[in-house]
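It is worth pausing here to work through a concrete case rather than discussing structure prediction in the abstract. The textbook approach is simple: state the sequence, then state the predicted structure, then interpret. We follow exactly that order.
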Amino acid sequence: MNVVFLTRYDPNNPKDWSGTLYHIYHKLKEKHTVEIIGTEILRQLDSFAKGNFSKDISVPIDRYLTKLNRLLSERINSLNFDLVFLGDLYFLPRDINIPMIILSDMTFEYFSDLLIKVYPALSHSQQRYCLCVFCSSQILTNSA
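Step two, the predicted structure:
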């Protein structure tokens, strides 16, 4: 299976996210082809800002996230990926038609609200791609 590992953190660094991304990435690599996307985009944007703006001007990356997510969607769709693993919610490609696994530490209620805001069509056209959302807060509540 071809997996795109989309994150702003370096999954080769065991110190990021307390090693969670590191271990997931390396486990996926054992049996699948995995391509990291996200970290190089941030480096390119940083390089562009340094080359085009003075050091006194701060370029907030949040201003460009919508456009970056559109470019990421185009890139993911143009390549032969079977699955997208989102290592955080910084990048959220919208217009892709392959399954996504999203790693997050937010509560189920907040995540549900965010999902509907970011993916308003999810409840209709993309419903077939959404099989299960596992949140520790929901499991904890249901286990009591």
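Step three, interpretation. The chain has a mean pLDDT of 77. The chain has two domains: 2-103, 106-144.
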